[in-house]
């Protein structure tokens, strides 16, 4: 259970860092740049800790899949980026893949 919390926090920090990366304007804005510099290392640390218990395939699929889906939604709603049918289908396939890996088992 603790590994799942570490993974969840790693996902949240990855989402914050990636969103801040967009807002940093090529690292020319201080506060978004600081968020990137702080959040990514902590994110990777928490992911590495979660990998002590959760298998690599499952943890990475959940981490990257959830991050991708949420960041895509943030792009659409916060930054007015376009979402079309092909992009939505791709995100759905990512989510289905993560579910499939999860159903395949989480222990080493």
Describe the structure.
This protein is mostly helical. The chain has one domain (2-103). The chain is 80% helix and 0% strand. It contains 4 helices and no strands. The longest helix has 24 residues, at 56-79. 23% of the residues are buried. The mean pLDDT is 93. One of its GO terms (cellular component) is plasma membrane. This is Small multidrug resistance protein. Belongs to the drug/metabolite transporter (DMT) superfamily. Small multidrug resistance (SMR) (TC 2.A.7.1) family.
What structural class is derived from the secondary structure elements? mainly alpha
Secondary-structure element string: HHHH
Please give the domain count: 1
> What is the first-to-last residue Cα distance?
15 Å
DSSP strand count: 0
Oligomer: single chain
Largest β sheet strand count, sense and barrel closure: none
Label the overall shape: flat
**Tally of alpha and pi helices:** 4
| Average residue-wise pLDDT | 93
Tell me the Rg in angstroms.
Answer: 15 Å
Strand content: under 5%
Protein name: Small multidrug resistance protein
Organism: Pseudofrankia inefficax (strain DSM 45817 / CECT 9037 / DDB 130130 / EuI1c)
InterPro entries: EmrE-like (IPR037185), Small_drug/metabolite_transptr (IPR000390), Small_multidrug_res (IPR045324)
Membrane topology: Multi-pass membrane protein
In short:
This protein is mainly α. The protein has one domain.
List the keywords.
single chain, 0% strand
